[in-house]
Amino acid sequence: MTFETDIVGRALLADELVRRGRAQLRQVVLDGHRRGLSQRRIATLTGRSQPEVGRLLREIGAPARTWMTARGAAEAIKGELGQGDDDFALRTLIGAINDFRGLRDPAEIQDFLRRPRPTGDRRWDTLLAAAVAQACRPQGVTAPKWTHRAPLESWWFPSHGGGLLAARTMSRTPIDFSRLGIWLDASAFQTA
Questions:
Q1: I need a labelling partner for 172 at 20 to 30 A (CA). Which of 20, 26, 31, 125 fits?
Q2: Domain spans in the chain, listed from the N-terminal domain onward
């Protein structure tokens, strides 16, 4: 085998590896999309830009979705909790609720409201359910059955609002959360 023949063979192999890698990346992006993750979240998880994720989804003919569903939020929250990042888990939830508030198409709303898989933490599952139920009312949408949850066994302050700030946080917590033993200032959902 000559040196030039070796170079041609290695170049062809490299091209094949690139094609396989591209196909695998498309599948990963499509899987994330099907699980309800937003393009922004898929981009973060894959180390790509959101425009690249959008382009990949268009290439494979997936319907465009730039918002996160409750399923996607639960999946992302589970990932953040696994990394010990409760703050980003809360930001993810807030972002998903803000996305929901912007939806007008009934099909998109129903897609958002599909039952999520558990996050692995009952407190977070309950918080997600309460937040979705609360967000349904102003939309004029009946909250899905999965949002009906029993109160937590002990109080929980997901946003470090306990301690010296407990009374303030408790006075600013919507009834949807406080009845479940979750204490979270309502203003948390005004920013993401």
A1: 125
A2: 3-59, 70-190
